[in-house]
């Protein structure tokens, strides 16, 4: 400043006078004026615009800019007046498109202007601007609903959530619920229950949430992020408890955490095991035991800190207490039936499709079609009608439809899908039974309970359930069931149906409950409150029964026999109707099942009812033989009728030449003819003879081979010519000895045969006709070896064969002598 003050101005060489510089005050609070020289003259001002500013240069610039803007507006007005067209002050659609193209959150718009822009964009519902508006509204709605869900209002929040398009916004839902769960871990069971409900109707939403949780756990485990791992495993544990995720996922996570134990990994595993341990103990006991063995090994190694060791000891105590503070599903959140739940089997090492693109907005060319499809899905889930059909039609039709809908709504009422009414009914029945002094009072009060048609079976089941929960059986419940069965046929049928259902599922009950249920039904059977025809569902075989069902039957019949007496029970089983119903309990079609039933009833003290089965089992071989004999006789009779027809035809066509030829063939081999005359006897293999004087059996190799069979035609021709005797043959001893070895005789009394006449007098017997031979071969059936019946039949057959031989030889001898 001092230098500037001491400077001396010089005059210009050309005589031009320069403007003097103004001195700035030394002690002035105002900023110094501009030292800039204006070369050009100031611009002409179209309008008299004044701007108040301390700095003159800045004031002049602002006045110039304002004047330029006003001049542009004046020119625009002049152009509009010339063209005669009126345009809106601003293009709302263009402004909104410009707004949506930029990042949201940085521009403030007045509410009135924003509503105007949204109304302009909503005129075209297929446009990208309108889809962006609905996307933002969907994101805000889903986030708000998820943030305010709790145990008390979850039943009301679920319908609101289904009102939104969860298929389009499933990525938004997954992100919102994961953020909300990570921020509030105590509400994890509520969020898991919400996901389980949505998973029953929209499985792709539940699968996406589970996939993102597993992916998040893998990233957090690699980064050693303990907080994220803990929150993620907690959410996965409750999804497993709800049945959304398969049990293989927690086992893989535990294996990963316990493979290389550290303080953080063991801490996460302990927290995870406290949440999912009850589920694994019930559904995978072996795997659960293996996990605890690994925990015990880590504890014994001592490689972790004392704090974490104490956490493992606390977990062991929690397991010992059967997870009483960490149930599988907390009270009030068991909202999904086990049969309706859809379980996703996603493993920890699978390639996961996280679908991060679902979190951001994308233009959908088929937006309107997809919205209509979701409306139909929403109507199917919530039971609502489409809004388009209600809007269409004239005023009269709309009024008629409204009246009809009101009438239908009054008739149908509200549909209860949470089974709240059923739970309340069971609670009322239970409290009524517990508050009654005796069974008559209980029956009197239960009859006053309002039960809808079709729910009568619930009363019978609740009586049985209350009986099963007692420490020991009480006749109080049996008398209640007996009184109900005698009051009305409806209750009679309900208790019979309950018997069949409980017998099919008796393996699910523990021994004490099983005993009480069996004694309850034993009381009803002993008092004839229910029909004994309910026993037709019992099939007492080794394959059709289990250990639980056999215990149930034992206790049931012990109760019946104690009440009725063993003699009365045996007489009751002899009743034709009861006998027909109990065919499954006393099987007689298979000897194995019959023996099993006999042994079972004998072991439980009811051997008296097995007398008929024992008799049947004793006579089973004889009955089988008789059936086989009858079958063989039927077959032989049918074959005899066929052979008689064929023999009559062959006899009419035979001639004398073939008969003489066949006779000559028979006369050439007397030993073969004699062997054919004898009755056939079955080959007895390895037979032991009791008579020590009988000659030893001849070896099979020494016996001559049987003669070859002759042609049937020759035998028929010879048999048809009975009047012509055969040729005489030489029966000298030398020839007989030369032809075949002498046959050894059996001198036992049973096997003694009639002697043939002398060789010189008796001619060789003629061969019998083929019909007789076939009859003997077909009517004969080898008896079953072993036993007295076999020996008796064998002796009878042998005697009949000896009689036939004697008659045959006598007839042949008479014919031969008469012919001579």
UniProtKB/TrEMBL annotation:
<dbReference type="InterPro" id="IPR003891">
    <property type="entry name" value="Initiation_fac_eIF4g_MI"/>
</dbReference>
<feature type="region of interest" description="Disordered">
    <location>
        <begin position="381"/>
        <end position="413"/>
    </location>
</feature>
<comment type="similarity">
    <text>Belongs to the CWC22 family.</text>
</comment>
<dbReference type="InterPro" id="IPR003890">
    <property type="entry name" value="MIF4G-like_typ-3"/>
</dbReference>
<comment type="function">
    <text>Involved in pre-mRNA splicing.</text>
</comment>
<dbReference type="GO" id="GO:0071013">
    <property type="term" value="C:catalytic step 2 spliceosome"/>
</dbReference>
<dbReference type="Pfam" id="PF02847">
    <property type="entry name" value="MA3"/>
</dbReference>
<dbReference type="Pfam" id="PF02854">
    <property type="entry name" value="MIF4G"/>
</dbReference>
<feature type="compositionally biased region" description="Acidic residues">
    <location>
        <begin position="386"/>
        <end position="407"/>
    </location>
</feature>
<protein>
    <recommendedName>
        <fullName>MI domain-containing protein</fullName>
    </recommendedName>
</protein>
<feature type="region of interest" description="Disordered">
    <location>
        <begin position="631"/>
        <end position="820"/>
    </location>
</feature>
<feature type="compositionally biased region" description="Basic and acidic residues">
    <location>
        <begin position="688"/>
        <end position="751"/>
    </location>
</feature>
<dbReference type="InterPro" id="IPR016024">
    <property type="entry name" value="ARM-type_fold"/>
</dbReference>
<dbReference type="InterPro" id="IPR050781">
    <property type="entry name" value="CWC22_splicing_factor"/>
</dbReference>
<keyword id="KW-0507">mRNA processing</keyword>
<feature type="compositionally biased region" description="Basic and acidic residues">
    <location>
        <begin position="811"/>
        <end position="820"/>
    </location>
</feature>
<keyword id="KW-0539">Nucleus</keyword>
<feature type="compositionally biased region" description="Acidic residues">
    <location>
        <begin position="642"/>
        <end position="658"/>
    </location>
</feature>
<feature type="domain" description="MI">
    <location>
        <begin position="424"/>
        <end position="540"/>
    </location>
</feature>
<feature type="compositionally biased region" description="Basic and acidic residues">
    <location>
        <begin position="786"/>
        <end position="804"/>
    </location>
</feature>
<feature type="region of interest" description="Disordered">
    <location>
        <begin position="1"/>
        <end position="64"/>
    </location>
</feature>
<dbReference type="GO" id="GO:0000398">
    <property type="term" value="P:mRNA splicing, via spliceosome"/>
</dbReference>
<dbReference type="GO" id="GO:0003723">
    <property type="term" value="F:RNA binding"/>
</dbReference>
<keyword id="KW-0508">mRNA splicing</keyword>
<feature type="compositionally biased region" description="Basic and acidic residues">
    <location>
        <begin position="47"/>
        <end position="64"/>
    </location>
</feature>
<feature type="compositionally biased region" description="Basic and acidic residues">
    <location>
        <begin position="766"/>
        <end position="778"/>
    </location>
</feature>
């Amino acid at each position: 400043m001092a230098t500037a003050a001491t400077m001396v101005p010089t005059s210009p060489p050309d005589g031009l006078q320069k403007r003097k510089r103004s001195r700035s005050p030394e002690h002035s609070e105002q900023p110094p004026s501009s030292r800039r020289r204006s070369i050009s003259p100031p611009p002409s001002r179209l309008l008299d615009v004044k701007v108040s500013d301390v700095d003159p240069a800045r004031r002049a610039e602002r006045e110039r800019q304002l004047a330029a803007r006003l001049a542009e507006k004046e020119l625009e007005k002049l152009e509009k007046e010339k063209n005669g067209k009126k345009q809106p002050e601003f293009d709302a659609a263009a402004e909104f498109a410009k707004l949506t193209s930029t990042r949201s959150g940085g521009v403030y718009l007045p509410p009135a202007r924003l509503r105007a822009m949204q109304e302009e964009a909503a005129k075209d519902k297929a446009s990208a601007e309108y889809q962006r508006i609905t996307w933002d509204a969907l994101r805000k709605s889903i986030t708000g609903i998820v943030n305010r869900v709790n145990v008390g209002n979850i039943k009301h929040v679920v319908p609101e959530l289904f009102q939104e398009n969860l298929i389009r916004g499933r990525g938004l839902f997954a992100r919102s619920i994961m953020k909300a769960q990570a921020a509030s871990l105590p509400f994890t069971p509520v969020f898991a229950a919400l996901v389980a409900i949505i998973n029953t109707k929209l499985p792709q939403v539940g699968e996406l949430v589970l996939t993102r949780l597993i992916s998040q756990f893998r990233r957090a485990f690699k980064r050693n992020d303990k907080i994220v791992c803990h929150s993620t495993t907690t959410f996965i544990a409750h999804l497993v408890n709800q049945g959304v995720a398969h049990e293989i996922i927690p086992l893989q996570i535990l294996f990963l955490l316990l493979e290389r134990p550290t303080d953080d990994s063991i801490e996460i595993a302990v927290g995870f095991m406290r949440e999912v341990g009850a589920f694994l103990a019930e559904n995978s006991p072996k795997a659960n035991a293996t996990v605890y063995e690994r925990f015990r090994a880590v504890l014994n190694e001592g490689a972790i800190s004392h704090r974490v060791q104490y956490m493992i000891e606390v977990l062991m105590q929690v397991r010992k207490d059967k997870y009483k503070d960490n149930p599988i599903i907390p009270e009030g959140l068991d909202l999904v039936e086990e049969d309706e739940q859809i379980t996703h089997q996603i493993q920890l090492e699978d390639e996961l499709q996280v679908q991060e693109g679902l979190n951001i907005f994308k233009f959908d060319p088929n937006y309107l079609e997809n919205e209509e499809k979701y409306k139909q899905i929403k109507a199917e889930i919530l039971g609502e009608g489409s809004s388009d059909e209600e809007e269409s039609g004239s005023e009269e039709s709309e009024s008629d439809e409204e009246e009809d809908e009101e009438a239908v709504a009054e008739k149908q009422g509200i549909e209860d899908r949470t089974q709240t009414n059923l739970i309340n009914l069971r609670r009322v029945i239970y409290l009524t039974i517990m508050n009654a002094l005796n069974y008559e009072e209980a029956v009197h009060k239960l009859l006053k309970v309002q039960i809808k048609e079709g729910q009568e079976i619930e009363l019978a089941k609740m009586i049985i359930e209350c009986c099963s929960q007692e420490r020991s059986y009480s006749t109080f419940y049996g008398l209640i069931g007996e009184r109900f069965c005698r009051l009305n046929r409806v209750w009679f049928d309900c208790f019979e149906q309950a018997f069949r259902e409980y017998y099919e599922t008796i393996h699910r009950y523990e021994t004490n409950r099983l005993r009480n249920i069996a004694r309850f039904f034993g009381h009803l059977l002993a008092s004839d409150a229910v029909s004994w025809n309910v026993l037709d569902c019992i099939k007492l075989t080794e394959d059709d029964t289990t250990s639980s069902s056999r215990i149930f039957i034992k206790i049931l019949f012990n109760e019946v026999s104690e009440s009725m007496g063993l003699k009365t029970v045996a007489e009751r089983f002899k009743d034709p109707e009861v006998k027909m119903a109990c065919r499954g309990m006393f099987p007689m079609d298979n000897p194995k099942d019959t023996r099993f039933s006999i042994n079972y009833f004998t072991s439980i003290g009811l051997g008296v009812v097995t007398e008929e089965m024992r008799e049947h089992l004793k006579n089973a071989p004889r009955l089988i033989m008789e059936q086989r004999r009858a079958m063989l006789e039927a077959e032989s009779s049918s074959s005899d009728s066929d052979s008689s027809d064929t023999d009559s035809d062959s006899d009419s066509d035979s001639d004398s030449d073939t008969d003489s030829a066949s006779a000559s063939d028979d006369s050439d081999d007397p030993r073969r003819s004699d062997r054919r005359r004898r009755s056939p006897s079955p080959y007895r293999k390895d037979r032991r003879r009791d008579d020590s004087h009988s000659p030893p059996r001849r070896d099979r190799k020494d016996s001559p081979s049987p003669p070859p069979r002759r042609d049937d035609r020759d035998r028929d021709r010879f048999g048809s010519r009975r009047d012509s005797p055969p040729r005489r043959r030489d029966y000298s001893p030398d020839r007989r000895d030369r032809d075949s070895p002498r046959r050894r005789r059996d001198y036992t009394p049973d096997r003694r045969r009639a002697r043939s006449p002398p060789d010189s007098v008796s001619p060789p017997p003629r061969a019998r006709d083929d019909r007789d031979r076939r009859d003997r071969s077909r009517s004969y059936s080898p008896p079953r070896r072993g036993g007295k019946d076999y020996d008796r039949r064998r002796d009878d057959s042998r005697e009949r064969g000896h009689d036939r031989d004697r008659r045959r030889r006598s007839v042949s001898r008479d014919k031969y002598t008469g012919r001579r």
